Amino acid sequence: MIKKLALSLCFLALLFGAPVFAQDDLLKKEEQLFNQFCSHCHGKHMVNPGTSSFDLRKFPKDDKPRFYESVSKGRGDMPAWGDVLFPEELDLLWHYVKSRAGKEPTAFDSSDASDVTESNEPETVLSSLLITPGTLTACLAKNGGVMSSRRSKGGAGLDYQVALALANGMGLTLAVEWYESEQEEESSPVRESYAMLAYGVCDILPGFALYETSLSAFYKTRAALPRWDNRPDTLTREFQVDLQPLSVSDPYARMEMGVVFRTPEFVRPITRVADLEGLHVGVEQGTLAGVLTLRQGSATLTSEATTLNPGPDFLWKMEQGEFDAALVTVGAYDFHKKQNAISTLVLGDYRHSIGFNLSVAMLKSNRDLLDQIDPLINTMIADGTMAALADKSRLTYSEPRQPWVQTRLTMQDIMMRQ
Ligand code: HEC
Predict the structure, then answer these.
(1) Nearest CA-CA partner of 12 in 347, 275, 293
(2) What is the Cα 26 distance to its own chain's centre?
(3) Which of 4, 40, 71, 402 is the 20 to 30 Å CA partner of 332?
C-alpha cells in the first residue's frame, strides 16, 4: 500500500527522467489553423454544437471550388476569409476539411436543418470504436491518491469522476479496469499507460500528464503491462506489448507544485524557492520538486536542508517536526490532508510555474472519441463542474494552463523557472 502511494509522488520524477525524443508533429498546422479561425463556429474537430453553423463534416469532399469560393468570399452569416488567410492556409484548411468530410452516412444537403442535427448522434460512430459497445472502459490506478482509488462500489478521485462524467455525457455506461502501478526501474506510469491502451485493456486512460516526451516516440518500443484486476493468469509477467501512438484530449486539470509549511507559524509569502531561506527545508529525493529545491535554493538553504526518501512518509516526517517547509506536488498534500484529519500542515499560495496538465489518453486510432470528449471536458471546466468534482475528491483544483503540453524540461528550466 505505502509503496503504491509513492507512485503519485514519484510520478513527476519519472516523467522528468523520461527519455528524450524529438518533438512529434503534435499540433498539426492544419488543426492549428482550424482551431484559430474556424472552430469557434464550426466546432472543434468540425463537430459543432448542433446550432446554426454548417456541419463541415458534410461538406462534399469533391467540391473544392465551392470551398474556396465560400470561404474566401463568405457565405450567409460566415464572414469572408479571403483577406485574412493566405492561399497556402486555405489549402491546408481545405485538406483538413476534406479529410474529415464525407464521413457521415447521410446525404449532403446544406439547406436541411434536421440533417445537421442527426449527424450529432454519437451511438453509431462510437460503438465501432469501443471495446464493449455501449460501454466506456477506463483504466484507472487503484491507489492514485486523490486522483483515483477503488471503492467497494465504483471509485473515487478526480480521474474517476471525470471518466464517469464522460461516460454519462456520451450516453454510455462506465466500466473501470483498476490497475496497480508498480514502482520498478524498467516501468513508468507513462509506459504502462501506453501498454494498457495498446493491449486493449481500456478505451480511455484519464490522468495522462501532457509532457512532450510522453507524447512522442514511446510507441516505437515495447513495454510490460501492469497488474490489473482482470489480468488473465495466462499472461506472464515478462509479456511485452508493442506500443502504439496515442491521442490526448484537451486537459481537464493541472498538476502543480506548491510549498507546504509545518504549521501556520512557519507560513510566509514567497515568490520563489529561494525565499524559503531561514526555514528548515525538506527535500524529497529524486522527485522533480526535490531537484528544483536543490537547484533553486540558496547555498545556505540547501546545505541546511534535510533530504529524505520520496513517498507518503515525507509529509508525515514534516508533521513530526523533522523540517518546516517543502516544495511538493499539491496532490500529495491533498492526499496527506485527507488521510490525516488533525494535520497541522498548511499549503501556501505560491505555485511553481512548472506543472503538468492532465488529459485523457486513447489510441490514436480511436481519436474520433475526442469529438465527444473534448466538448464535454471544456463545458465541465467552463460551467464549474470540474472544480466541483475536484472538490468532491478533496483536491485543490487548478485549471489547465497554456501551453497544454509541457515542453521537455531543460537544465535552464530547472535552474531558472520559478
Ligand atoms: C463567425 C462564425 C464562422 C466562422 C468563424 C467560420 N464559419 Fe464557416 N460558416 C459559418 C456559417 C454560419 C455557415 C453557413 C453559411 C450559410 O450557408 O448560410 C458557414 C459555412 C461554411 C462552409 C460551407 C459553405 C457552403 O458552400 O455551403 C464552409 C466550407 C465553411 N463555413 C468553412 C469555414 C472555414 C474553413 C472557416 C475558418 C477559416 C470558417 N468556416 C469559419 C460560420 C462561420
Answers:
(1) 293
(2) 14
(3) 402
Query: So what's the pLDDT on residue 151?
Result: 87
End-to-end CA distance of the chain: 33
Pocket mutation for ligand 1, best pick of 78, 88, 96, 108 (most atoms within 8 Å of C-beta)? 78
> Which is nearest to 324 in space by CA: 346, 302, 341, 309?
346
Q: Is 48 in the pocket of ligand 1 (CB under 6 A)?
A: no
Q: Which of 365, 357, 344, 11 is nearest to 212 (CA)?
A: 357
93 lines ligand 1 (CB under 6 A): yes
pLDDT higher than 90, residue 416: no
CB contact at 8 A, 40 and 62: no
Q: Which of 53, 69, 89, 93 most suits a substitution to test ligand 1, by most atoms within 8 Å of the C-beta?
A: 53
Cα 124 to Cα 56, 118, 129, 171, 368, distances in angstroms? 18, 11, 9, 12, 12
Residue whose Cα lies nearest atom 30 of ligand 1: it is 71
For ligand 1, the distance from its centroid to the CA atom of residue 54, given in whole angstroms, is 6
Ligand 1 lined by 333 (C-beta under 6 Å): no
Long-range contacts of 113-117 (CB under 8 A, 24+ apart): 115/58, 116/50, 116/54, 116/55, 116/58, 117/50
Q: Distance between CA atoms of 368 and 362, rounded to whole angstroms?
A: 10
Ligand 1 centroid, distance to 78 Cα (angstroms): 5
Q: Is the CB of 218 under 6 A from ligand 1?
A: no
**Are the beta carbons of 227 and 180 closer than 8 angstroms?**
yes
Check pocket membership of 78 for ligand 1, CB cut-off 6 A.
Answer: yes
- Residue 59's nearest CA partner among 93, 85, 32 is 93
Q: In the prediction, which pLDDT does 107 show?
A: 34
Q: Residue range 240-267: average pLDDT?
A: 94
Side chain identity at residue 95, one-letter code: H
Regarding predicted confidence, which is higher, 205 or 418?
205
For 204, counting Cβ atoms within 10 Å of its Cβ (0-12 exposed, 13-18 middle, 19+ buried), the class is buried
Whether residue 344 contacts residue 262, with contact meaning beta carbons closer than 8 Å, is answered with yes
